[in-house]
Amino acid sequence: MRLVIARCAVDYSGRLNAHLPLATRLLVHKGDGSLLVHSDGGSYKPLNWMSPPCTLVTEIPGEEEAGAGVIDVWRVTHKKTGDALRVQIYEVLHDSAHELGIDPGLQKDGVEADLQRLLAEQVERISEGATLVRREYPTAIGPVDLMVRDAAGAAIAVEIKRRGDIDGVEQLTRYLELLGRDPHLAPVHGVFAAQEIKPQARVLAEDRGIRCLVLDYDDMKGIESGVPRLF
Question: What's the pTM?
Answer without folding.
Answer: 0.54
